[in-house]
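ok so i was messing around last nite and threw this chain in just to see what happens. nothing serious, just curious
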Amino acid sequence: KQWYQRRVRDFLSFHSQEQYERFHYTALVYLNTYSADFEGGRFIFDSPGTNHTVHPRAGRVSVFTSGRENPHHVERVTRGTRYAITVPFTCDADYAIPEPVI
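result:
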């Protein structure tokens, strides 16, 4: 299954639901800061006619719907290391993680 939508400036633009079919929402938690800890690595939404850029900052959380309405890419990191945690969410109970048994 193809997960990319189009090539944008040497990077593949995609939306999470194509790559991970059961994602309905995606959250990104940034663990370090653009410019201070690394260069490049900004998260860019590739909306037709405009780009919206997220500059990672330690502690910043970005949440968006994972469908075709939000194609995006991440710039190549040119200095340092970019750290982020991706947290997927589903609205499909068949794919939900069960409550832990203690």
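not much to say yet. The first helix runs from residue 16 to 19.
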